[in-house]
Amino acid sequence: MKLPKRTIPIALMALLPSLTLASALPEPDATQKQAMDIAFNISDAFEYAAAKIEPSVVHITVRNSRRQEGEGLGSGVIVDPRGYILTNNHVVETGRYITVRLADGRELIATLVGTFAETDLAVLKIVADDIVAAQFADSEATRVGQWVLAIGSPFGFEQTVTAGIISAKGRGSTSPQIANMNPSNDAKLQEFIQTDAAINPGNSGGPLVDLHGNIIGINTAIISRTGSNNGLGFAIPADIAQSVMNQIIETGRVERGWLGINMKLLSPVLAHELNIEGGVVIQELVGDGPAKKAGLLPDDIITALGGRTTENIIRLSNAIMLIKPDEPVEIDFLRDGQHKSTTAIVSDRDEQMSIAQRRVAPGLYLEDIGAKFAPGSLSLPNRRRGLPPKSLRGFVVTSIDLNSPADLRGLNIDDFVYSINGEQFNSAQEIEDYINNNASDKPIHISFYRNRRNMYVELIPSDD
Hints:
Elements: H1 10-24, H2 30-53, E1 57-63, E2 72-78, E3 84-87, H3 89-92, E4 97-101, E5 107-116, E6 121-125, E7 147-152, E8 160-172, H4 176-179, E9 191-195, E10 207-209, E11 215-222, E12 233-237, H5 238-251, E13 257-258, E14 261-265, H6 268-274, E15 280-285, H7 290-293, E16 301-305, E17 308-309, H8 313-321, E18 328-335, E19 338-345, E20 347-348, H9 349-360, E21 364-366, E22 371-380, E23 390-400, H10 405-408, E24 416-420, H11 428-437, E25 444-450, E26 453-459
Antiparallel strand pairs: 1-2, 1-4, 2-3, 3-6, 4-5, 5-6, 7-8, 7-10, 8-9, 9-12, 10-11, 11-12, 13-20, 14-15, 15-16, 16-17, 16-18, 18-19, 21-22, 22-23, 23-24, 24-25, 25-26
């Protein structure tokens, strides 16, 4: 019996020369073997870090209604065994219903514990057993050039791991390129770690970790000409994220420190002459604030605060705001070329801003509403053709207290108030008298113009 001829697939035949060549290659020499061992060790380190952090990374879906398909997609990281999750504010601000999918596939409803838009952070909470909480690293101890991994759900591809290095530290939102990433963001002095690890839409809120698998940052933004990764990713440093997170969990709000200084950047030339990396010059002291009480003077150069180096205004501003009000902080500074240190007791930033607004802004402060009003007028077009514009008398809102009735109901600075409960007033004092005589539990109807649009709010004055 004649056996059939065996045929060899064309694709396999094409490989035969290379297979023959590979078998003929010599074994690696000692130098090559050493290089391969190093590469395998780095690969093992990546594998370890990825395996450690992946159980803590979650996929987040945000909806405006329960039946709606996913409107917002992002990432988050479990940071507490009680079920607390850290993510970006911009991930969760787009909807009311938040669903979290764990690494093991479980889908859970998450509640929003609190947010702090100024640093683009939010804290969620889930109720679940057998969850793995990630650990934080000291982001101040990280170095440029250090290997890092970014984990999240870019374009919805969950549990995606990318690798890169720390490209820079202390990047700030005052940089025009970074400020343009999100023009509507209220954050003025936000600090970032820059990385070339691939970060794409959907990575937001996920962790940036070191090779120990510990969090050194929360991925938040990219700079790109195409909308996808161009090697310019930014993460909120872990120490800032952890401070904000702890305050939201403990009190539901974020208190930030205030030193009472106006500052300017130290010139690189002078920094070189003083043999320091950089610093911030005190331009002037504000009132009888913490800086003045601590003995600081104009032209002092602050080089460190609370253990954080302050090479630029971004770094110093965040170092100050990381200190809780009424807590002491050590400040290192130069005066006439001499290194010195002092201790200051920082104040509450929001409280000081509110006081400053009341002092600077004109008009009468209405404590029960939490706003200040100044007399003004508004020119409105006349509905009858050919007639001159009409001038409406009223009051301009010149300042608003944080979390006051006016703030909570959406009244804004520069709103033009022309009536309260349908009545007009000739002076701000008349408004105060009217409000004081109004029942404390009875809402008042405030009619106003904003950008020439007629609007209104109803609020109940505080009875404090």
